[in-house]
């Protein structure tokens, strides 16, 4: 275990993961050890192994519910967006002071799977409207989208995202207006 911590502090994450795996084989399942293993895998960009380690850590007695955020990040990086959304929602319940941003992350994960209705339920009231993140062709009323944008015109990242969506769909005039 101490070798894993040493390698982790030295930013040699692949070696840290190997040392944590050895400690796991010798010491058995420990929530803290599995969490460290997941973190080492995540930092070594082995997101599938990281997700598995975080899932295992959350099943073991002594796990901290806030570890769902680390799990969600690994699931999102590995393309498992629906699972990531569920993990973000669990993390939002465990971390009420960060619930809004975690629910927003869950919603954006659902947008990537075209679960627009579920995603829109997660976005908080008074926040950036979800429709701004979704290509306009998926909604029936373009005027409704523009009305929602007008309410929150100061959000530059919103307009940048909308511009990117227009640009990728080949609508260059609308993209330049959104930027």
Give an overview of the whole structure.
The protein has 179 residues and is mainly alpha-helical. It contains eleven helices and no strands. The protein has helices at residues 2-9, 13-27, 31-43, 47-59, 68-77, 81-94, 99-111, 116-122, 142-151, 156-168, 172-178. The longest helix is centred in the first third of the chain and has 15 residues, at 13-27.
Blueprint (SSEs and pairs):
Layout (H helix, E strand, L loop, with lengths): L1 H8 L3 H15 L3 H13 L3 H13 L8 H10 L3 H14 L4 H13 L4 H7 L19 H10 L4 H13 L3 H7 L1
Helix pairs in contact: 1-2, 2-3, 3-4, 4-5, 5-6, 6-7, 7-8, 10-11
Outline of this structure?
This protein has 179 residues and is an all-alpha fold. The chain has helices at 2-9, 13-27, 31-43, 47-59, 68-77, 81-94, 99-111, 116-122, 142-151, 156-168, 172-178.
């Amino acid at each position: 275990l101490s070798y894993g911590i040493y390698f982790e502090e030295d930013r040699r994450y692949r070696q840290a993961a190997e040392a944590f795996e050895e400690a796991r084989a010798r010491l058995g399942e420990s929530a803290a050890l599995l969490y460290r293993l997941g973190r080492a895998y995540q930092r070594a960009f082995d997101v599938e192994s990281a997700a598995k380690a975080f899932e295992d850590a959350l099943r073991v007695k002594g796990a901290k519910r806030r570890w769902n955020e680390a799990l969600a990040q690994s699931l999102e990086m590995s393309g498992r967006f629906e699972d990531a959304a569920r993990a973000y929602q669990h993390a939002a319940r465990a971390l009420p002071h960060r619930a809004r941003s975690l629910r927003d992350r869950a919603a954006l994960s659902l947008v990537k799977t075209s679960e627009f209705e579920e995603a829109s339920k997660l976005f908080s009231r008074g926040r950036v409207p979800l429709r701004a993140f979704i290509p306009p062709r998926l909604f029936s009323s373009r005027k409704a989208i523009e009305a929602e944008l007008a309410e929150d015109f100061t959000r530059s990242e919103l307009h940048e995202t909308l511009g990117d969506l227009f640009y990728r769909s080949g609508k260059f005039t609308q993209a330049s207006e959104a930027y």
